[in-house]
Amino acid sequence: MVWIPCRRAWRNPIFHGGLAAFAQQPMYRSYSLNYIAALATVLLITWPKEGFVNLRDLPFTYNALGGTTLIILAYLNVSQGATRSLGSRYLSLHDWLVLAPVPAGRFLRGYLAASCLELLLFWGLSFPLLILAAHVSGEPLLHLGTGMLIILVCVGSYRIVGVTLLTCFERDEFLLYILVRLLYVFFILGSGFVAPLYNPVLAFADASLWPHRLGSVTLLGLTLHGWVVTVVLHLLLGGGSFIIALARVHWVQRRGAPRETREEDRGHG
Amino acid sequence: MYRLSLWCILALVFGCVPGSVVAQVTMEARLGLQGVLRLGKWNVVTVQVHNLGGAVMGTLGVRTWLGSEARGDFHTTTFTRPVELPPGARKRFTFAVPISGIADPVEVTLRTGETVLAQQRLDLREALHAEQVIVGLTQDVSLDFLATVFTKTHTRVVYLPPSELPQHWSGYDSVSAVVVKGVSLQALSVEQNTALHEWLANGGTLIAAGDSQYTLLTEPRLRTLLPVEVLGLQQVEGLPAFVARYDVPFPETPMVVVRARLTRGQVLVGTSDAPLLVQRRFGKGRVVFLAVDYAMQPFPSWQGRGALWNDILQTPENVDFARLFAELGMLDETHPIMKLFGRPVLDFPSHLTIVGYLLLYCGLLAVLFWRMSKHQERCWRYWGGVVVVIVVFALSALSPLLERGLNQPALIFDVTTMELLSETGYAHLQGHLGVFSVRGGQFDLAFQQPETILRHTFTRGVGKAGKDLEASIAGSFTLHNIALEPWALRVFSTESMAPTPVQVIVQPHAAGLTIQVQNRGALPLQGATVVYQGKIFALGAVAPGEAVFDDLYPTLRNAESAQEMTWRVLLKRRPAEADTRIAYLQEVLLQQYFGDKRLAEASETPFLAGWLLAPATLVPASAAWPAQGVTLVVSRLTL
């Protein structure tokens, strides 16, 4: 079952091209080193004093590192999602669709999969450090697994939101710039006050030993942990954004085809 | 109409309940020794159950409230034991339970499963309270005057038949003294006799008074305890020795006293050949022999009997501030477990190790990325390398750098001081236990001694602790239902008595001491050391079943360390252990036992100190929650 989407992605020409470009681009490498250095610094700062158990405070290392990972990755994925990652930055979506004549769905899936390679790299790089932090904070592997899932789902949905913004506002770079930052501030900071169940950092802490600040939600007689609701909401956000992006690509593709025909006619004329 | 419906409903309800459950068992519970209680101590609760119906298999529980709301350590403890009641059975059960205040009643419940068969609430406000309880094992009620002798200490006298004496030493916790006169101890069961000995060894006072039936004093059980050999009766004219001691005239009328001869101990009144009042130490307690029948005239009218009984009972008239502070929770922060948590008891990888790990991780990634930029055509190979690096570092973080202590359900510490009570055959164990839960959960503690007393418990940490403890006293003592939220610590102080695992015999000689240390236990006694006249004599390890003899000559040792703190000196001489964390357990135990006493002060009476490198209060081998612990063995050597 898992193999089928992977095989499909592998056969997707857009993903194939994106994969090759990702492997060659030096930008990701420098980003990853900076990212690891930032996480390592946080880990070292919050590493507990050797062997002491502080009875008055809960261990901080795991949540500090998880929170930092989320804060960095959320920004990286909203902003990088909204940046043209494949080909030249002067190449618009319309140009892409002209150059790669594939169905809109296939194009978007391939583009998103290629774009998410960066997300997977960063997510994987933080894994060993999060294990260290979890152990030193007394967090069981179940909590660690939940935390990694929260990071992956939340950050993945932000990537899709970024790509959706790109497809919608690619011509107005200023608006795109402002929207990306506003959304980021809302996701990471504002939601904590307005809609705590939507905040990924709170969800990460909720899935740890720390007191469950998000509480639980009862839905159709089923009691869900706060972090589960956060994951579900982010899945909905990602899904919704994907549908918007798909509609936009369809629209561009449909609008672009007659225009192309007209241009061809004009050329012949 | 409504009334009729109500009666119908009630009839229906009772009709549905199985017949064996309704009023088939009658239960009567009584508080204390004949209703007398001593607050702050463990008191006896006696429950009589009569089964009028079919066979019943159930659980009998006694619930008490302890702690204070203000301190935040208010909790209940339910002492439970299984009960089997055949049809028509009438059984008596005794519990020893802690009672610290009168606000909340003691609840006695008999249940099978979830069904309550009988329940009784004992109102503590109706009980008879006392600060000193004296048990009289006598044929008469001639000790009543003791209630008026002690003006500052509210005293009550309880007369018990021998059959009602406690079966376990914890039942004597509220008792200050036992007076035996004209009653045979031979009638006691083995358990009762052991309980009496253990209580005596732990600080109780047994008074054997003269009586016309003097032969009772020569019976084996009493004879082994008495400081004298009873020879018979003799008639005397007055008691000039009492007059001399208490400076109160005694009528010179003929009276009968018990004739005896001193065998051990100290004569307080009389001579060693004709002792009238003698005492001997029995562990921390005392056995007193009074040659006179205090109930016979002219003794009851003698003005000096108050002073005499003060001499016999040696009741402390001062307020025990140490105990008071402990009850108020003011000494909680100095509890050994709290001190232990001030030390690095965990084994995290150090900052240096983490720096090395991170540098290696970042360095390897940097090298791979650099190679990737140099050899674009082979970049896939390097990306594979990146994946391998991530996997390898994740695996190394999973195992070699794992802190074991934090990655188990609970950290359980047991630091115990075992005081060998010389010449009694018993050891007094004072346990300091800590259960620290990292991730929260419910825990059980199994104790080695079936009669363990929980003196004090409190909680610390971020998480909260459950307020309902359950102590199962069936055969072994197990504490259930210790519920802890994540990052919460529950601390217990316990006391228990056990047969001594180490026998110490000491003989003084002209230049020093000859000592024999015999280890009868299953664990080696490590780092055995004798401290005498401010000097240290190392005996080394004594293996199980082995005995060590040594001659100690204090004059041959220098006394340069006599002004050092005793705990510091003994810590330096502890057996070398691979696990350095054991040293922290040893340090807190030594500090707790010796305080700030210098070696010269602490060794006025010579003592032996050694280590059992295992828990002595808790059962150590529980795979789910292994307890870390050490036991400090101390024996005061009587010369």
Sum this structure up briefly.
The complex is a heterodimer of chains A (269) and B (639). Chain A has 269 residues and is an all-alpha fold.
Output the structural class of chain A.
Answer: mainly alpha
Distance between the termini of chain B: 87 Å
The percent of residues in helical segments of chain A reads over 70%
Strand content of chain B: 35-45%
| The number of domains of chain A | 1
DSSP strand count of chain A: 2
Identify low-pLDDT runs of chain B.
10-23
In this structure, how is the largest beta sheet of chain B organized? Answer: 8 strands, mixed
| Oligomer status | heterodimer
Mean pLDDT of chain B: 87
Task: Tally the structural domains of chain B.
Answer: 4
Tally of DSSP helical segments of chain A = 10
What radius of gyration of chain B results from the CA coordinates?
31 Å
| Annotation, overall tally of beta strands of chain B | 32
Strand arrangement across the biggest beta sheet of chain B: 22-25-20-19-32-31-28-29
Provide a descriptive summary of the structure in words.
The complex is a heterodimer of chains A (269) and B (639). Chain A has 269 residues and is an all-alpha fold. Chain A has one domain (29-48, 61-268). Helix content of chain A is 76%, strand content 3%. Chain A has helices spanning 3-11, 13-24, 26-46, 61-81, 93-99, 104-136, 141-169, 173-194, 200-206, 226-268, and strands spanning 216-219, 222-225. In chain A, strands 1-2 form a two-stranded antiparallel sheet. In chain A, a hairpin with a 2-residue loop joins β1 and β2. In chain A, α4 packs antiparallel against α9 (200-206), α5 (93-99) packs across α10 and α9 runs antiparallel to α10. The longest helix of chain A is centred in the last third of the chain and has 43 residues, at 226-268. Chain A is globular, with a radius of gyration of 21 Å. In chain A, 42% of the residues are buried. With 639 residues, chain B is α+β, with helices and mostly antiparallel strands. Chain B has 4 domains: 20-29 and 50-119, no CATH class; 130-318, 3-Layer(aba) Sandwich (Rossmann fold); 351-402; 409-639, no CATH class. In chain B, strands 22-25-20-19-32-31-28-29 form an 8-stranded mixed β-sheet. A 7-stranded mixed β-sheet of chain B has the order 8-7-4-5-23-24-21, with no helix packed on it. In chain B, a hairpin with a 2-residue loop joins β17 (275-282) and β18 (285-290). In chain B, α9 (351-374) packs antiparallel against α10 (379-398) and α11 packs antiparallel against α12. The longest helix of chain B is centred in the middle third of the chain and has 24 residues, at 351-374. Chain B is globular. Classes of the chains: A mainly alpha (269), B alpha+beta (639). The A-B interface holds A 23-24, 26, 29-30, 32-33, 36-37, 40, 43-44, 47-53, 55-59, 121, 124-125, 127-129, 131-132, 135-138, 140, 209 and B 341-351, 354-355, 357-358, 361-362, 365-366, 369, 372-373, 376, 379-380, 383, 386-387, 390, 393-394, 396-398, 401-403, 406-407, 411, 436, 438-440, 460-462, 486-487, 489.
